[in-house]
Amino acid sequence: MRIDKRKIALIGTGMVGMSYAYALLNQNVCDELVLIDVNKERAIGEAMDLNHGLAFSGSNMKIYAGRYDDCSDADIAVICAGVAQKPGESRLNLLKRNTEVFKSIIDPVTSSGFNGIFLVATNPVDIMTRITCTLSGFNPRRVLGTGTALDTARLRYLLGEYLKVDPRNIHAYVMGEHGDTEFVPWSQAMVATKSITELCEESHGSICAQELEQISEEVRTAAYKIIEAKNATYYGIGMALTRITKAILGNEHSVLTVSAMLRGEYGQSGIFTGVPCIINQNGVQRVLPLSLSEEESEKLEQSCQILKRSYEELEI
């Protein structure tokens, strides 16, 4: 008798990958986790460390260091591997080096017979997700990146602090590139079923658009501040990866702002960028278009054009 298992192949055991693995263990998200890294000794050590905590968790996961062949029956291949930007290195050169890394990963993963879903965290995530789709030849709906999922969580946290409302009751999104051209479509932001623009109008100045834009800027620059303070960000993105993974394995049909291919939505085609999507066991079930204002549509257009140019410069 075959018992279906929830299996994840994690490629890249750096701080992001292991923050993700630690969250998976604590939340009992999967049954089997294989760690794959070019540094095999590190993957072995990380697997040992996680296994030694199993007795304290509510999980019964099988955790081990493996090879690309172990991806053959995985439900999700999560890519956290990549090279760091060197001082003075151009963004394009970093992209080219990370493209070479991805070629060395995706070819053996697909050759193993893997037929699941690719989930990408490596930055710049929108372009690396598109590269994954191109190199794998997979249906774009089965290739997604973390996109602006973490940015959206940061936004809801900051809005919750500002409005004194539980962030889980705030429905607001960050869209576009996971980077400098991301933006908040305030026309679509809600507290329960009340729009934030209405709250502004009714608050007699206690809630104002200027302070909302300041929150938007805090969200956009959060990673820079964290990196300045501690050299890297990993807990937040590890939790974001875990949330997306749960939506896939649980067939939740949850709305998350992942990096997905646009195929006519918002007037864009072939671009991977952060947009609200319905996520289920098949990956991106569909992009959920929002009714953006003219100004917001222009911001998304600008973000998509920058992503398009960056990808075309790679000449893949």
What do you see in this structure?
With 316 residues, the chain is of the alpha/beta class. It folds into two domains: 5-143, Rossmann fold, CATH 3.40.50; 146-311, L-2-Hydroxyisocaproate Dehydrogenase, Chain A, domain 2, CATH 3.90.110. The chain is 44% helix and 18% strand. It contains nine helices and twelve strands. It has helices at residues 15-27, 40-51, 91-111, 125-136, 149-163, 196-202, 209-230, 235-249, 294-314, and strands at residues 7-11, 32-36, 62-65, 76-79, 117-120, 143-145, 170-171, 190-191, 194-195, 254-263, 269-280, 283-287. The strands form three sheets. Strands 3-2-1-4-5-6 form a six-stranded parallel β-sheet, with helices on both faces. Strands 7-8-9 form a three-stranded antiparallel β-sheet. A three-stranded antiparallel β-sheet has the order 10-11-12. Strand 8 and strand 9 (194-195) form a beta hairpin. Helix 4 (125-136) crosses helix 9 (294-314). It is globular, with a radius of gyration of 20 Å. The termini are far apart. The mean pLDDT is 93. Pathway: Fermentation; pyruvate fermentation to lactate; (S)-lactate from pyruvate: step 1/1. Residues 148-313 form the Lactate/malate dehydrogenase C-terminal domain. Keywords: Allosteric enzyme, Cytoplasm, NAD, Oxidoreductase, Phosphoprotein. Catalyzes the conversion of lactate to pyruvate. The modification Phosphotyrosine is found at residue 224.
